[in-house]
C-alpha cells in the first residue's frame, strides 16, 4: 500500500511541476496518467500493484463523474447554447442523437451477434465526450473562441444528457430479459430519472437557502465555504442512489440549478470542486492503465479495433458535419470540431455501470468501450497541439 502511495505521490509531484511543459507538446494529462499506470503496473514493470476490486473501481469512477457532472453543469452558461450560430445547441440536439444512431447502425453491421438493445447501450455509452481529454483544445487561446466555447459546452452537458438515455435502454433490457410488461420498464426508468431530478433540485435549493442565511449572518468562513459545492455534489449523488434513483441525474440537475442560484459566487465556489475532482481523475486514469487495459487486451479482436476507429471518426465526425450544415464555419473547422470529441471518463463509468446488468454480450461491449477510450486518449492526445498550431498559422 505504501509503495503504491509513494509512486502515486512521486508522479503527482513530478507532473505538477512540469505539467505546463508537457501539455504544450504532444502529451496530455490523461495520456500520461494512463501510460504511467500501464508501464508501472502488473502488465510491465509490476512495481505498481493497485489492489482495487470491481466495486472499488466503480465507486472511484462514479464519485469522480458525479463531481464532474455537477461542476460542468454548474459552470455551463446556457445563454451560450444559441451563440455562435447555435454551435453548442447543434452539437447537442442534432450531432449527439445522430452519433448514437450511427453508432448503433454500424454496430448492427459489425456485431450482428449482439442484441439490438445492447447495441443501443453500447452506442450511448460511447457518445459523450470528455472535457479533460479536450483540455488542450478548449483552454488554448489559439483556437477560435466560438469553437472553444462550443466544444466546452457540448462536453459539459452531453454526458448528463446521455444518462437518461442510457437508463431508458437499461430499463428496456430488463423488460426484454424478464418478459415483464413494457410499463414496468417505463416505471423503472421514470423512477430513476424522477427521484434523481427531485433529489438534485430539492437538495440544491435547500443548500442555497442555507447559504444565503449563513451569508446574511456573516457565519461563512472563506476556507470552509470552498467545500459547499463539492459537498452538495456528493450529497445529491449519494442521496439519490440511496433512494433508488440515479445519482448522476441528481448531480447533473443539481449542478444546473446551482448555476442559476449561485450565479454570483459559483466560479469561486466551484474552484474547490474542480480541484477535488483532479486527484480522483488522476487515480482513475492510472488504475485504468494499470488494471483495466491489461484485463481486456486479450479480448480485443480486429472487429473491435475497427469499430473503435469508426467511433472516433465516421460515427462522430459525420453527425457533426451534418449538424453544422448551413453555418459559416469552413470545412476544416468543422472537421476540427468533429475530430475533437474525445471519449474518456464518462464512457469508463457507464461501462462499469452496465457490469451489474445481465447483458449477453457484456464482456464484448466493455471491451469495445475500453478500446475506444484507449485509442481516443492516444490519438486525441497526440493530435491536439499540432492541429491547434495549424489553425493558429492559418488565422494569421
UniProtKB/TrEMBL annotation:
Top-level taxon in the UniProt lineage: Bacteria
Subcellular location: Cell membrane
Membrane-crossing residue ranges in chain numbering: 29-48, 194-211, 246-264, 276-297, 303-324, 336-355, 367-388
Domain named Cation/H+ exchanger transmembrane: residues: 27-388
Keywords, comma-separated and alphabetical: Antiport, Ion transport, Membrane, Transmembrane, Transmembrane helix, Transport
Signal peptide as annotated in the record: none
UniProt cross-references to Pfam families, sorted A to Z: Na_H_Exchanger
Membrane topology: Multi-pass membrane protein
Broad class of the protein's primary localization: membrane
PANTHER family reported in the protein's UniProt record: CNH1P, NA(+)/H(+) ANTIPORTER 1
Full protein name: Sodium/proton antiporter, CPA1 family
